[in-house]
Amino acid sequence: MSKQLLLESFQLGDYTLKNRIIMAPLTRSRADNPENKVTDLHVTYYSQRATAGLIITEATQISKQGVGYVNTPGIHSEAQVEAWKKVTDAVHAQGGLIFNQLWHVGAISHPDFHDGELPVSASDVNPNAQVYTHNGFTHTVAPRPLTVSEIKSTVQDYRKAAANALRAGFDGVEIHGANGYLVDQFIQDSTNKRSDEYGGSVENRSRFLFEILDEVISEVGTSKKVGLRLSPSGLFNTKGDSDSKNTWTYVIEKLNGYDLAYLHLVEPLVPLPEDTHFAKEVAKFYRKSYQGTLISNGGYTQEKGNQTLAEGHADLIAYGTLFISNPDLPRRFELGAALAEPDKNTFYTPGAKGYIDYPSLEEIKA
Question: Which residues are catalytic?
Answer without folding.
Answer: 181
